[in-house]
Design goal:
Family: Belongs to the glycosyl hydrolase 9 (cellulase E) family.
Number of strands: 7
GO molecular function: cellulase activity
Structural class: mainly alpha
Keywords: Carbohydrate metabolism, Cellulose degradation, Glycosidase, Hydrolase, Polysaccharide degradation, Signal
Number of domains: 1
Largest sheet: 3 strands, antiparallel
Oligomer: single chain
InterPro entries: 6-hairpin_glycosidase_sf (IPR008928), 6hp_glycosidase-like_sf (IPR012341), Glyco_hydro_9 (IPR001701), Glyco_hydro_9_Asp/Glu_AS (IPR033126), Glyco_hydro_9_His_AS (IPR018221)
Catalytic activity: Endohydrolysis of (1->4)-beta-D-glucosidic linkages in cellulose, lichenin and cereal beta-D-glucans
CATH class: Mainly Alpha
Length: 486
Amino acid sequence: MRGVSFCLVFSLCFLLLGFVQANPNYKDALAKSILFFQGQKSGRLPPSQEITWRSISGLADGLLAHVDLTGGYYDAGDNVKFNFPMAFTTTMLSWGTLEYGRRMGPELQNARAAIRWATDYLLKCATATPGKLYVGVGDPNVDHKCWERPEDMDTVRTVYAVSPSNPGSDVAGETAAALAAASMVFRRADPAYSRLLLSTAKKVMQFALQYQGAYSDSLGSAVCPFYCSYSGYKDELLWGAAWLFRATNQMYYYNLLKSLGADDQPDLFSWDNKYAGAHVLLSRRALLNNDKNFEQYKEEAENFICKILPNSPSSSTQYTQGGLMYKLPESNLQYVTSITFLLTTYAKYMRATKHTFNCGNLFVTPNSILYVAKRQVDYILGVNPIKMSYMVGFGPYYPKRIHHRGSSLPSLARHPQAIGCDGGFQPFYYSANPNPNILIGAIVGGPNQNDGYPDDRSDYSHSEPATYINAAIVGPLAFFAASYSN
């Protein structure tokens, strides 16, 4: 009964606030959330490209190191390829496809294509030079001073790598996780490619373990403050080992998991901090296989969820008046989508085994967790105080001035002349006009803690989209698309 009362109290709050409406069109949102990745592509675009205002870019990437590092994704609104968030994006897209692929319908093929665009690039980074893992292309400090289309890039495309003398266990562990997770996505669809992904994942994980150190220490201002590894690298070793164990079922990775010992107990999940994700991933064995060796991960996953649920006695999560989880002021929706993925997925495991648990005196059911997850997804899709959809191109009212170079500058078709490093600031960046190109499906950083959103291109902490924000919501959208028909 307490689980029921929790839902009733929570839903009553939103009823009183006047935000309850018919379910958003989750199928449409799912399709758009995956389409977004086409707008972030680097390299030579395929004939299937639907976001047609984008064109080929970065064809000389890797040239400075005499290797081919073309392809992959620009991480956000800039023109840099940062592998740490790109690999996390790939892992989350793969996890979403593994958990919810059967619910994706025609979008399954598009999800696989989005994953493969990343893994093709990550494979190059892992195999181009023996003993090295390439982890980025483009000097961020130079790039961030420019406002130009990817197609016009005239900044130096510096190549960054980690090696035995300059280790990067965090970025290597995440790359191993991405390749291992993706290997399962392609296991039946393309067995040879799946085997290549898995064998490369094993080698990259071995590198992460053998030469331990944080890539932030090795690469300094090339990755900090942009994608510093603030949580250290032990979480990526756990995450990489967890994914390799799921992909191989080998005792070596089980023993590695156990050797990594007790973990931090965070109340968030992101491209930087993977502990909660690893706990939920590993809890699957305890719940679905009734494997007592994984009981500690189930307990840790539930401790995490108790820190998220709004009326749990151990909750450390703030919610806005409109009901949005609010973790940090910079790009808050990245935490919302990632945490929502974990809530949805753990509830799915619980539902399959009729499992419940307690947060102190709060009785937690799969439905009570899914209620909170759905509220976050619905909020992002426009069920909020200002009725703003934070997914570009979804619904009648969405961000028009996103912090994104390609979207805010006229396309090559409209403006064939090159726009140099400084050329995009006036009249485009500082313009009050909406962006000329709609980056369909992009989810921006989101509203402030008062549920407000200024729709200001220069306010990047709220108006910038990123691949890892989108990657994490694909799974929950697929889940709710299959659960609610419009």
